[in-house]
Amino acid sequence: MEIHHSPAANADKTVIFEKTFKEHFKGLHAYACTIVKDEAEAEEIVQNVFFKLWEKDGLIQTLQSVSAYLYRAVYNESINYLRHEKVKASHRVYAMRMTEETNNKTNRASVTELERRLEEALNELPEKCRTVFQMSRFEELKYHEIAVKMDISVKTVENHMGKALKLLRLKLVDYLPALWLILFNL
Fold first, then answer.
1. For the segment 105-142, what is each residue's pLDDT rounded down to a tens digit?
2. Residue 36 has what pLDDT?
3. Pick from 19, 41, 22, 23: which is nearest to 32 by CA?
4. Is residue 6 over pLDDT 70?
5. Which of 11, 24, 35, 174 is the most buried (most CB within 10 A)?
């Protein structure tokens, strides 16, 4: 059942509410600022308290201490705000961790795929070409050291390396930036 107030009763309610608002807003705002450490949020909190007070028709007239009620309400709203901010912050941290974990899994999967594709491409190289490439890139031997170990000329080592790099470039074109870093230790 809806209660209808006379225009005079509504005018009295409005006058009392405006008077209470003007008397207490600055002090309540300062109090909320000390709790939430943010002026804009403190203002929002105090406005919410007054909005709720306005919705509770006639509550102001029944309170023994309007001031005590308002300060308690601002305190509760402020604490609720801080709790909510803490929850939001923990959700942000969780979301960042999940994004990092997903990126790490994706990166690991990409590296694993690259390693698999590199191994396949290396296996497609002729045996001497593959051996020269592995000695150069994985054992980090110089061309003249490879030539001595394999009993071939430095020019032959260069030819095998050129052939290996050309084939690997063709087979691993999608992975060239990452492959470049792996093979040339940049």
1. 556 656 677 778 878 888 988 999 999 988 988 888 99
2. 95
3. 41
4. no
5. 24
Phi, psi angles (nearest 5°) of residue 185: 45, 55
Q: DSSP assignment, residue 174?
A: G
pLDDT at 80: 94
What's the whole-model pTM score?
0.49
What is the spatial distance between Cα 28 and Cα 70, in angstroms, rounded to a whole number? 8
Number of C-beta neighbours around residue 59 at 10 A: 13
- Amino acid identity of residue 86, one-letter, is K
In whole angstroms, give the CA distance from residue 28 to residue 178: 59
Q: Which domains does the chain have, with CATH numbers?
A: 7-92 (1.10.1740), 125-184 (1.10.10)
The CB density around residue 175, as the number of other CB atoms within 10 Å, is 19
Residue 63: is it exposed, middle or buried by C-beta count within 10 angstroms (0-12/13-18/19+)?
middle
Residues 157 and 40: their CA atoms lie apart, in Å, by 72
